[in-house]
Amino acid sequence: PTSQQQQTHQIQVELFHLKKSIIENCLFGVDINPNSCEITKLRLWIELLKYSYYLFDDQGENTNALETLPNIDINIKCGNSLISYFDLKQSLTHYPNIKSRIQNYKQMVSDYKKGLFDDKTKLSTQIQELFSAFKSFCFKDKFAKEIKAFQNKCDTYRKLYGNYLAKDDKELSLFITQNPFPKYDLTFEGDEKILQEANQSFLEIRKTYDSLYNLSSNNPFEWRFAFPEVLDSEGNFLGFDCVIGNPPYIRIQGLDRATSKQYQKTFSTASQNYDIYVLFVEQCVKLLAPKAKIAFIMPHKWLNSLFGVGLRELAKDKISKIISFGHYQIFDASTYTALQWFEKESREVKFIQAPQEIESSQEMSEFLTQLTPSDFFIFPTNSLSSSPWYFGGDLSQNLFSKVTSHTPLKEIFSKMFQGIATSKDSVYFLYDCQEGETTTKGYSQELECNVEIENDLLKPLLMGDSFHRYDTPSTELRVLFPYYQGEDSKGNAKMYLYDESTLKERFPKGYTYLKKCEKVLRARENGRLQDDDMWWRYIYPKNQLLFDKEKLLIPYACRKSQFILDTQGRFYINTKIHGLIRNESFENLDYRFLLAVLNSELNWWYMTQVASVMRGGYYTYTPAYMQDFSIPNLSPKEQKPFIKLVDQILKAKEQNPKANTQDLEKEIDSLVYTLYNLTEDEIKIIENRGWL
C-alpha cells in the first residue's frame, strides 16, 4: 500500500490485530505428541502471517517492513492432558507472596508473547522456574504424608546401614547421608544375610522415590497452573469458557498396563473395556468455567454400550446436544462419530441424526448448515440415567421397552461363547478338504501344500463367512483338534490334550504334520511355547466342551441377522462366530422358535441400535450387545406357527441353498410384530430402519 489511509490496508491491520488478540488471549492447546504441537504452532503463525501488514514511518512512507509477529508458541504445550497430579481446586493462598508471584507470572508470560525482552531464553527460563516453584509448593502439600513416610524409610536405612549403596546414587544420596556409626558396617564385607536385607531395603526406597519424585515420567500436564491466563490474582483456577477437541479413540487394550491403572484410579468413566475418549470428556468437564461448554467430535458408541456406563452417569445432567452422523464416516476409519456438546449443568439434550441417504462430505455440510432448532428432538436430562440412552422420541422409547421387557437372551442361553482360538490358524485350519474312510486330505496354508491327516484328529469347521441366515451348515474346512473328552476326578466331563506318544501311535500322519510345523508352533506369541513340552496345544483352549452340543450360530459381523441352527452339534467354529446354547431351564423354547425371532427384522433393528457399527454397515454380534434383547416365554403350542414357517425355510434351503425364502421370512416378521404387540407406527420404524 502507498498510504495508511487505504481501505484495504486498514482492513488488513484490523484483521491482524483481531486475530492476534484471539490467538494470544483465547486459544490454548495441549497434545501429547510434540510433532502435533509444532504443527499447531506453525499453523497459527501462518494464519497471522497471512494478515501481517506493512509499517509506515513518521512521514507516512511505507517502510516495506512487516509488523512483528508475537511469540504464540507459549500457548501450545506438550503433555499428557489426562494425567495431572495437582487438584484444580488446590489453594495457593497460604504460599508466601502468592499475589505478587501470580502477577509476576502473568506479566512474564505477557511480555514473552509481545516480545518485550532482551533475552528470550532468559525470560523463558524465568517462567519455567516460577512454574516449577508452584509445582514444588503443591507437591509438598499434596504428598506431605508420603514424603514423611519416605524420609522415615531413609532414616531407618541410614541408622542400620549408613549410606551403603546410597553414596553412589545421585538422587538418594541427598536423603541418605553418611552415618559414622551405623548398626551394620558394610563398607567392606558383611554378613551375606545382612547384605541381602540392605540391598532389598534400598531397592524398596528407590522404588518409593521413583513413584513419588519422578512424576514427570508420565509426562503429566499440570492444568492447575500451566496457563496464567485462567488464574485469578490469588492463583485460583477459573476454568476455560470453551473446550473444543477431537479426542483420540483408543481402547483400553491399546494402553500399557501402568497407564491403564493410572486412568482407572483417576477417572470414574474408566469402566469396562473403555475407550479413552470418555476420559477426555470427564477431564474437560473439570476444566470448564461455570457457564462454559465442551464441543467434541467423537464416537457415539458410549451412549448405549457397556463401557459407556461411567460416562453416562457423569454426563446425564451435562450432555446438551448431539448431532450424529449415522452411517456416514467423517474420518477415513471404521469409526462412526457425532458432534457432542457438554456443559456444567444441562436441563435438556437436543438430538438429531443425519439421514442415511447422505453419501458425500458436501451433502453432510449442507445438512449441518441448514439445521434449525426445530429439527432437533428434545429430551429432559432428568430422564437420563447410567442405563443405555436411545434418542428417538416416545415412540422409539416404547419400542425399546417392548423388546427388552420379556426374558433376556442372557437368561435364555446359558452359554454365549466364542469359537476356537488356536493362535496359529494357518497350521490348524485345513481348506478344500476331501474326507476319506479313515483320513482327510486338505490344504495347509502354513506348508502351502495338501496334507493328509486322520479323521479322528479333525473336526468340521465353520468360519464367519461360511453361512447365511437359515442355511443348513456344511463345510469343506477342518480344524486339527488335538484333544479328547474324558472325566475329571469328580466324574465331570473334561477335555484333555493328547500326549506326544499317543499322537505318534494313533495319529502318525497328524503327528508328522505337526512336527513339520513345530518351529512355528513354538514361536507363537513371541516364543511363549519355546520351552513347552506340549508345543502342539492351543494357547487358549476355551469352550471346548460346547462345540458338540446343539446350538445357534451367528457370525461376529453381520449386515443382517445371520443365525443358523446346528441341530446335531457337529460343527466347530472359529473366533469370528459365536455359539448360543439354551439354558436347561428354558427347554420349552424350541431352538427353531428362537431362530425365527433372532432372524427377524425386529432383532436386526435392535442390533443396529445397540451394537458397534463397522465399515460397510456391518454390526458386531457379541454377547455384550445381544444379551438384553428379550423373547417372550411361549408355550410349545404358541410356538408352533413360528416353527412351521422355519421348517419350511430350512427344507427349502437344504434342497437349494440359494432358495428365495423372503415371503416366508416376512410371514415370520408379521408373527413377531404381533408377538411384541407393535403398533403400525412402530413397525414403520422397524422396516424403515429408524435410527435413534
UniProtKB/TrEMBL annotation:
PROSITE patterns: N6_MTASE. Residues 25-331 form the Type II methyltransferase M.TaqI-like domain. Its EC number is 2.1.1.72. Keywords: DNA-binding, Endonuclease, Hydrolase, Methyltransferase, Nuclease, Restriction system, S-adenosyl-L-methionine, Transferase. GO terms for molecular function: DNA binding; endonuclease activity; site-specific DNA-methyltransferase (adenine-specific) activity. It is an enzyme of class 2 (transferase). Residues 544-629 form the TaqI-like C-terminal specificity domain. One of its GO terms (biological process) is DNA restriction-modification system. It catalyses: a 2'-deoxyadenosine in DNA + S-adenosyl-L-methionine = an N(6)-methyl-2'-deoxyadenosine in DNA + S-adenosyl-L-homocysteine + H(+). PANTHER family: DNA METHYLTRANSFERASE A, DNA METHYLTRANSFERASE YEEA-RELATED. This is site-specific DNA-methyltransferase (adenine-specific). It comes from Helicobacter anseris.
